[in-house]
Amino acid sequence: MVKPTTKELRKRRFQRPQKGWKGLRAVLKAFEDEKYMKYNAVLGFGGFGIVTDWDILKPDGSPGLSIAMKSAVDKEKQSTIDALKREIWWHKRFTGSEHLMQLVDLDERVMKAANINDENTDGLPNLSMEKMGRGSLYLLLRRLGYSSGFNHELPEDIRLMEYIPNRTLWSIFLCLTRAVIGMAYPSHDPLSRRNYRIRETTQGIPPGYPTSELNNLLVFVADPKDSPPDDEHRWAPIVKIADYGCMVEWNDAWDENQCNNPYAMGPATNIYQIGQMHRRANGLDFRTYGWRVLPDANYQIDEDWVNVDLGLRELIAGCMADSHLDRPGPELLELIIRNRIAWLDQQAAAEAAKPVLNPAANVFVPGQGFVPGPGGVTGFPPPGPGGVTGFPPPPPPRPRDSYRKRVPHGQVEPDWLLQKFFNDYFIEDWAEPDVYADYWDKKTLTPYDKPGDY
């Protein structure tokens, strides 16, 4: 962990969040003293808010509910207060939505003392929401980068995956699509309570047209124990979109200059952005900013990216079409993704059920890996008279470099590969430590006094 320098501690970008941190701790001190809640750490901070990690304690003092508290960093700046109030309002509109971050109500005394989840307060508002135990999508991508850096120091059989498998990517993309559907077709459920979940749908709900900035810093991955696996979250926990401070209701009367985004067209904007997060191609009859993920006569895709499911790459290119009219709508996007996931799962199950005897040399066999063909050792018992031996083959060793090399294009990934990625990245907490942890409760070293200090 790299400690911040004195110069960094003097900067306004730390001093303002530090004031917000101290203000919140002062308001909640009485409830910490009576063992109702326990402060853990700062999860992150920016120009508008600071997010802290808390446990709501059980009567015996052990951790119960985990929450994230978002507070304004500058109580003197009205725009910051207004952004947090606006975010609380949007959170309540999306109450119950499975793939949008949810508010969490606390003891009434705490709610009142700290103006929690109250967009109408005259005081300084705070926002209490569920904590996503595996951090942001950005953090997941950083961890993948770390793995490639230290894997060579580990025995091959315990090295971490260095890429996200195709079927896991499809699962994450479905979560993002459901989140966009939840914003465009909000449930308007009045309840605000943990684990009250409505799977987002376009059916039977009048559409709305909110649009907001989305990126992988604002997409969060749940702890698997908080999101039990189901038909749509078999290979990855629930992924949710958060942070609605910049969200606005789309107005069809706006033009490019008024919304300050030439590509903003209500839900079509969010569809563009989820395509951009996943990243004029030949064979397409529309212009797209996602052309780099597709084969092109003048552009050579990196070998590993060639093995990413072409169907996923084509869909991303569609989501990033120049014209919003060429992007798939939320309903069509959901249908395409669900159908593709179902087909891939069926293919993987069918391949795993096939007996594989004497395959061709160096063929990737789903469920078995790269297996040598005739003349080599397959790991299977030799067949008896008439064919199959009648007993199952021993489990094959994991193929060499499977942690690093994707399954070749056109072949379906086996379930064990997805399970390995799940175990490597979703079972254990891999949040990065707060480099400012030792400084939040300290006196500010020196006030900023020059433009260069902040």
From TrEMBL:
<protein>
    <recommendedName>
        <fullName>Protein kinase domain-containing protein</fullName>
    </recommendedName>
</protein>
<feature type="region of interest" description="Disordered">
    <location>
        <begin position="385"/>
        <end position="406"/>
    </location>
</feature>
<dbReference type="InterPro" id="IPR011009">
    <property type="entry name" value="Kinase-like_dom_sf"/>
</dbReference>
<feature type="compositionally biased region" description="Pro residues">
    <location>
        <begin position="385"/>
        <end position="397"/>
    </location>
</feature>
